[in-house]
Automatic annotation (TrEMBL):
Subcellular location: Membrane
Any one GO BP annotation for this protein: proteolysis
The name this protein goes by in its record: Rhomboid family intramembrane serine protease
Keywords: Cell inner membrane, Cell membrane, Hydrolase, Membrane, Protease, Transmembrane, Transmembrane helix
Principal location: membrane
Amino acid sequence: MDDAEPPRHEPEENRPPQRVPAFNVPPVILASLGLLIVVFAIQNLPWWSDDTLNWLYFTFSFIPARYAFPLSQQGLEWLWTPVTYSLLHGSIEHIVFNGLWLMVFAAPVARRIGVARYVIFWILSAAASAFLHAAIYWGDQSLLIGASGVVSGLMGAACRFAFPAMDSRRVGIRQAHLNPRLSIRASLRSRTVVAYIVMWIAGNALVAFGITIVGDSAQPVAWDAHIGGFLFGFLLFALFDKQPRIEVENPAPPAA
């Protein structure tokens, strides 16, 4: 009979690392993507008549001209369209582009602030984007649709905690939501954040001049709505942050 040997326990540091799922998105982000896809599918049902489609876009798109007339002399569309426009998209390229950026930047924000705050953030960042657009194009009758303003707001919020390293540790993307929050001043002192903001501004400046690098170039892009969303997320993120335990003024320099 062979002697039984007690089980050997490998040292913790010698154990192979656990496999991390390559696709790991918070459920609320998957729900957001699902909602966008369902709405897009409804928009493109083949049996809609032109009159029905015109009603749908008029009822749920954001139109700056609505706010140039007395609200008492029109329907209630002015009340919900500053949010519902963010659920509509004009093409497959449009929704795919916004969906990809949503998965990248919404995930750390949603993990950090939770479902309820994420929903409120979506509503308010959509409205902020829409009303900056309205302020610039006051009285214009064109339609504004798409989640780009909300995505830009999430990008701005991520700049306050997700990019810079607070110390010599390298934090993975799935743990980025655990970083302390940078103050606005400290964010603007972070080379990583500043480099990202400069590239983001440059990209929107090109769009303003009619040059589209990525996305659907067949449709006009509301670059001003992007700016409204980004400023909302960057400047007001602290109001949504459920981890306000420490607001870092100066990010620690990287280790040599």
